Structure formats: structure tokens, C-alpha cells
Amino acid sequence: MAVTVETLEKLERKITLTLPVGAIQSEVDSRLKKLARTVKMDGFRPGKVPMNVVAQRYGYSVHYEVMNDKVGEAFASAANEAKLRVAGQPRITEKDGSAAGEVSFDAVFEVYPEVKIADLASAEVEKLSTEVTEAAIDKTLEILRKQRRTFGQRAQDAAVELGDRVTVDFEGKIDGELFSGGKAEDFQFIVGDGQMLKEFEEAVRGMKAGESKTFPLSFPADYHGKDVAGQTADFMVTLKKAEAASLPEVNDALAKSLGIAEPSVASLRADIRKNLEREVKFRLQSRNKQAAMDALVAKAELELPKSSVQAELARLIEGARADLKQRGMKDADKATIPEDIFLPQAERRVRLGLVVAELVRANDLRAKPEQLKAHVEELAASYEKPAEVVRWYFGDRDRMAEVEAIVIENNVTDFVLSKAKIIEKTASFDELMGQS
Fold first, then answer.
1. Residue 255 falls within a domain, yes or no?
2. Which among 181, 19, 186 has a CA at the least distance from the CA of 98?
3. pLDDT in tens, 130-144
4. Integer Cα distance of 136 and 140 in angstroms
5. How is the chain split among helix, strand and coil, in percent rounded to 5?
6. Radius of gyration of the chain (CA)
7. Structural domain of 378
8. Per the structure, how many domains does the chain have?
9. Are 200 and 231 in contact (CB under 8 A)?
10. What pTM value is reported for the model?
11. Cα→Cα distances 328→286, 333, 334, 388, Å
């Protein structure tokens, strides 16, 4: 029997489903008989409960279950016959005035849109490249040295310098009143590491052990402590101890302490270069992928299924609540989060997902087994025991699904970059890594 599909608006469709009452009742009776063989009720032995008693107790729930199953089957069959790609769940309502011996339902639902992608040759994509320089290796080496620095007591009359570890007592007041978090004793920090506000660090520099100093400090308007943000406090600080930093020399001993297989400065620098090049590669892939996806979406024309957007919106809001809960917020699962905060992000995700899926389908950009293997091996290369990491990935279907999604995105990126007009741009290592 041909299925009649009514177009309501844009992507919304309606199908009328008709089910014979006799078939429904027959299935209900069958399930009740099966239930009667195992149901336990007071006053009856197992399997000996009369059918009328079973029907009286369970008839409504079984009937509801059968109706759900039959309507679901009928909808799936009708959508398949009409060759519809259904987006989200249908809204199903029973119709009044069904013919004798039948019950009818209206199923209202959305279908996935037709995705039209314009010629990508007219798209412009900025492609970033970055070189790992000797300066970048030097900077990383300096960070590794700082992570292994030791501190020694400065002379009593020596002034605090940048890089020193200091121990201080301090007390801050706003309009003569002490504020929360404004007082501490035996507080340690390293001058220049950014743990304290710059004005505080500058006030301590040049002080000597035993000295006290008063100074004003202006809290930034976006300071994390909302009670003092944007206000000016008067601080008094007393320097109790200053310790000078001592960094390890760059030699074979440092290379050995860092686990270099053949401990030498040359091997250490080669290892740093290898790790930096791997990190640069992943960051460039991410940046260039974003640029390619932006260009792809700009060249696509499609309607968005409201049901898909709502589902994505629900996921984003649930993720936000989970984040609030992790941060310690009480009753985070009940927090009111306005949908419009996440609506643009939800719409973009749905749009991008549909466009990418169409491009993958039309150009056979699916992840191939050798690509999956190569990507997992690349991820595992930075670990101490790569073979175990590879087994860890391949041993879990969900983890491999994540890898597959990344490989497909990479395939789509490469495809877009191969078709679009590329604008080459070079970024410094610090720019790419987000360093100043």
C-alpha cells in the first residue's frame, strides 16, 4: 500500500498510520498469556493465576506497550517505504473518527534536508604553517630547567630579584576594612611567575629580609574575586625570607634526568624538537581544519532540522551543568541555563555535521583501515610504551569511533584544501602555541 506523505512546512512531514484493532488485541492476548506463565501473585501458585486476573492487573500496561511497539513498527515501515530520512523522533497522536475495526494515528516529524554545496574552487582558505626553530627549542629547554630549579637562602642584606622564591606576610584593606583572602602569613611565591598580580610582585622586588612596605594595589575589573574586582586596596607586606633560584646546567646529566635514552645535549635537543614538531603538527591540523570547515559551511545551503538542533542544545546544556557540578556548584543539575546562550553553537554543530556527512557520502571520504591504524600509532608515539597504547585504542569500540571521526574530519579538511584557493600564512611558534 502506497504511503501518503504530507508536507507541512520546510522539513516537517506528516504520515497517517492505520492499525487493525484485531491485530493489536491478538498481540495483547499473546503477551498476557506469556506473562501468566511466570507472574507471581498472592493466593496463587506460579503459573496458575487466572487469565482474567492477569488481564485486570496488567492489561492496561501491556496494551500500552503493544500500541507503542506496533505504532513504532508501522512508522518505521512507512518511512522506509517512502524512502524518508527521518530526523529525530516523530510526534504521534491518535486520530478521532477512525473506521470500524481500525485505529489511526498522525505521525508528524522532520526529515533531513537536501544539502547543496557550491563549487569549493571559489572558496578561500587561510592555511597556516609554522617552523620549529632553535629558539623554540631553547625556550622549551629553559622551561624544563625551571621545572627542576632549586632554591638557596639569599644573604640577609640581598635585595629580591626576578626569579627569587620569597616568603612574606601580607595584609590588604579596602577603605580601612580587611577583606576575604586579603591576609596571609608565611606565604610563598616565585617573583615573576605570575602567581601574584604584577603590582604585588613589583612591590616585593628590591626588598630585603625583615623589611616591610605599604603600597596601593588596583584589582582588575575582571579579577576572579568579585568582591574586590575593580577596587583599590592598601597592602602592607613584610619580607621574611628570600631564596635565589639555581637552574641545572644544560649537560648530559640533565638529559639523563629527563629520561633520554642516549643522554647527551644533542639527543636532548633532538627529542625536544621531535615533541615540538608533533605538537605543532596537531595544532596546525586543528587550526587549518577549522578554517577549512568554516569555508565549507559558507559554501553550503540547507535547512536545519529543529529536532536535531534541540537535541544538540540539550547535550550542550547538560554538558554545562556537568561542568558546573565538577566545579562544586550546589544543585548544578537544576541550574537554569538559558537556551539562547548555546543556540548558535548548537546550530553550527548540526549544520557542520550535515554538510560534512554529505561531502563524505558524495566523495567517499570515509576512514580507511590503514588511516585508522596510522592515526592511532601517531597518537601512541608520544607515550613510553606505544604498543600498549595502540592495543588500548583498538580494544575499545567507542575509542575507535572517536578516532574514526577525527580521521574523517581530516579527510574532509584535505579535500576542501585540495579544491579551495589557499592563502598561505606563516605563524611564529609562539603565536601558534598561544605564548606571548
1. no
2. 19
3. 999 999 999 999 999
4. 6
5. 50, 25, 30
6. 33
7. 261-433
8. 3
9. no
10. 0.71
11. 31, 11, 13, 35
